[in-house]
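One such shown below:

_____
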Amino acid sequence: MDQIQLVGEEDPVLERYFKGHKAAIASLDFSPNGKQLATASWDTFLMLWNFKPHARAYRYVGHKDVVTSVQFSPHGNLLASASRDRTVRLWIPDKRGKFSEFKAHTAPVRSVDFSADGQFLATASEDKSIKVWSMYRQRFLYSLYRHTHWVRCAKFSPDGRLIVSCSEDKTIKIWDTTNKQCVNNFSDSVGFANFVDFNPSGTCIASAGSDQTVKVWDVRVNKLLQHYQVHSGGVNCISFHPSGNYLITASSDGTLKILDLLEGRLIYTLQGHTGPVFTVSFSKGGELFASGGADTQVLLWKTNFDELPSKGLNKRNLKRLHFDSPPHLLDIYPRTPHPHEEKVETVEINPKLEVIDLQISTPPVVDILSFDSTTTTETSGRTLPDKGEEACGYFLNPSLLSPECSPTTTKKKTEDMSDLPCESQRSIPHAVTDALEHIMEQLNVLTQISPQGLWRHLTDCEKEPCENLESSYDLLKENHVKNHLVSFSNIVLCVTFPVFIRHLFSLKAIALFTSCQI
C-alpha cells in the first residue's frame, strides 16, 4: 500500500475541475491578466473559461479538425489557434467570435506562438516548416526550412531575436530571426522532442522528450546542463515558472512533475488525471498552473511552493553553492541523469484522496459560431478589414493603435454589448434545425427498407400533399419571400417525407424544384 503524505501549506493544491470538452485536451494557455483560461481540444473546438463564479464558458466553433495549439497574445486581445485542418486562426476572445484565418501550411499545424511584443506569430507544421507572420500587417513574412521531418513546436525567445524548434527528425534547432538562418543544432539519437521552450531569461531551453526525458540546454555555450529521467512515459509538454527556478512537466504516464532547477531535483509528483497528460502551463504570474489530457478534464492548480520568501530560498541554496551570488543554471550539478525514484524528499500529491472542498465547474456553455472574416495566405500580402466592421482594434497590437481603436475603446464596446444576444443565438432558425433533424431521422429509416418496399410505400401515399407542395411553391414565387431557406424548410415540413421523395421521382416535381431558385 502506498504511503500517503500530508500536503503542507507550501505544496500545490488542486482547486478546480473544468468540464466541457468532448475529447482530449491538446493545449491550454492563461490570459495575461490571469482571469481566463483558453483550451484547445481534439473535439475541434476552442473553449474560453472564466474563473469568476457562475460565469459562462464560451466554445469557439470553426476549425474542421483537431485543434492542436492555442495561445493568448501578450496583450490578451487575440487568441491564436492551430489545427490539423492546416489553418491558423486569430480569434477575438469575446462573444462575437470574429476571426482572421491564415492559410499557408500544406499539412497539419502543430503549434502557434506570439513574440513577446505581440508583433509576430510563429507557426510550426507537419510540412516540415516554421512560418512567421506579421500581426500588424496581417500577412505572411517568411519560412524557415531545415527540418527533415514534422515540426512539433516553435517558440520565440523572450527578446524575439531567436526561435527554437523541435522536430521528429530528432533535432532541436535555434534560428536567428534577423538573418533567417539556423544558428545552432542539438541532436538526439534516442528520441525526438515533443515540446521545447525558452526559460524566462532566454539563456536556456528545455525539451520534453518522447524518450521519457527532460533536458535543459544552455544556448550560449551549447551545453546540456540537466538531464532528468523522472517519467515512465513520453513527456508531452513543459512550462517554466516565471521565476525560472521551476519547471513543470506533463507525461503520458498520467502524472505531472515539478522540478527544482536550482537544486536539480524532482520535488513534486502530481496525480489527478486519468490517462495521458498532454499539456500544462503556468499562469503569467506563476500563482496558478493548469493541465489537460486524454480524460477531457482541465485541472486548475494553486502553486503555493513559489510563495517561499526569496531570502529563505537564497539561504537554502547558499548551503549548496558559493556565497558570491545566488545560484543560476550554470552552477547546477550534477549534469548527468538523475535517478529520483528513491528520493525521500519528493512529495507525491494525489488530489483524488481528498476532494471534500473541490469546486467541480461545469458552467453553461455558449457556442460561438465563427463567420467569414479576413483570410491571409502565403502570397496574399496585406488584407484589411472592411470599413464597416470596426475591426481596427481587434487584430492589431494595441500599442500601435490609433486613439479611436485603443484597448480602452475596444473594452468599452465589448462591455456595451455584454447584454446583447451572441451571434450563435440568432444565426440558425429553429425551423431549419427541426427540418434537418427530421430529414436525418427519415433517412435512417429509409436505409433499412428494400427498393421494392420503398416504392410500394411511396405509391400508397395520398395525393393531397402534392397539392400542398404546389400551392406552397406558388405562394413562395408570388410573394418573393426573402428568406428562401426558411421558406423551403416550411415546405418540407408541410408534407410527409416519404411523399416528398415520391414527388422527386415524378417529372412534375423535378421541374418544380429545378425552377425554384433557393
Remarks:
- The first helix runs from residue 310 to 318.
- The chain has a mean pLDDT of 75.
